[in-house]
C-alpha cells in the first residue's frame, strides 16, 4: 500500500519545513497498526509495506506506532527514514521492543498483542 504526500501542518508557513520519507514494513500476521507522526494520526498500515512523505517543522521529530490488531502471533515492524530533511544517524528509540537501530531506522520485535507500541525520535534539518 502506498501513501500520499502529506501537507505541512497549519502554522508552519513562515517556519522552515522539512520533508521526510518514511517507510513501514509490518510483518505481524493479520497486523494492523496506527502510526502517529509528531502527535497527529497519519496512517493505519495493514500488514506489509507502507510509505509516505510527511512535512513538518525542522528539528526533533517523533513517531509513535501502535499495533491495533493482529492474530496474536509475533512478528516484526520495521521503519526506515530518508529524504532531504532527514539527518542520518539521529534515530533514537524511546519505548517498545526495539531490537535493532540503524542510521536510518528501527526494527521492533512484537509479541503480537494489540496495544504494543514503538516510539522513536529523529532529527530533521532544512
Please explain how this structure is put together.
The chain is mainly beta and 126 residues long. It has one domain: Immunoglobulin-like (Sandwich), CATH 2.60.40. 0% of the residues lie in helices and 57% in strands. It has no helices and ten strands. The strands form two sheets. The protein has a five-stranded antiparallel sheet, with no helix packed on it. Strand 8 and strand 9 form a beta hairpin.
- Rg over CA atoms, rounded to whole Å, is 14 Å
CATH class: Mainly Beta
Count, helices: 0
The tally of strands reads 10
Q: What pattern of helices and strands is seen along the backbone?
A: EEEEEEEEEE
Helical residues, percent? under 10%
* CATH topology annotation: Immunoglobulin-like
How far apart the termini lie comes to 28 Å
Q: Which strands sit side by side, in order, in the main sheet? A: 4-1-6-9-8
User: For the report, how would you describe the main beta sheet?
Assistant: 5 strands, antiparallel
Give the second-level CATH assignment, the architecture.
Sandwich
Provide a quick synopsis of the model.
This protein has 126 residues and is mainly β.
Keywords:
mainly beta; five-stranded antiparallel sheet; single chain; 126 residues; Immunoglobulin-like; 10 strands
Please give the structural blueprint.
Layout: E1 17-27, E2 32-37, E3 40-43, E4 48-57, E5 59-69, E6 75-82, E7 92-95, E8 98-101, E9 105-110, E10 117-124
Antiparallel strand pairs: 1-4, 1-6, 2-3, 2-5, 5-10, 6-9, 7-10, 8-9
Amino acid at each position: 500500500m502506498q501513501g500520499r504526500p502529506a501537507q505541512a501542518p497549519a502554522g508552519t508557513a513562515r517556519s522552515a519545513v522539512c520533508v521526510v520519507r518514511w517507510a513501514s514494513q509490518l510483518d505481524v500476521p493479520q497486523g494492523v497498526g496506527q502510526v502517529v507522526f509528531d502527535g497527529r494520526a497519519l496512517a493505519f498500515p495493514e500488514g506489509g509495506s507502507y510509505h509516505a512523505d510527511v512535512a513538518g517543522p525542522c528539528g526533533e521529530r517523533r513517531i509513535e506506532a501502535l499495533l491495533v490488531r493482529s492474530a496474536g502471533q509475533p512478528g516484526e515492524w520495521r521503519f526506515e527514514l530518508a529524504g532531504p530533511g532527514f539527518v542520518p544517524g539521529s534515530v533514537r528509540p524511546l519505548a517498545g521492543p526495539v531490537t535493532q537501530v540503524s542510521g536510518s531506522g528501527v526494527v521492533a520485535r512484537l509479541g503480537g498483542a494489540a496495544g504494543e507500541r514503538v516510539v522513536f525520535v529523529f532529527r530533521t534539518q532544512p
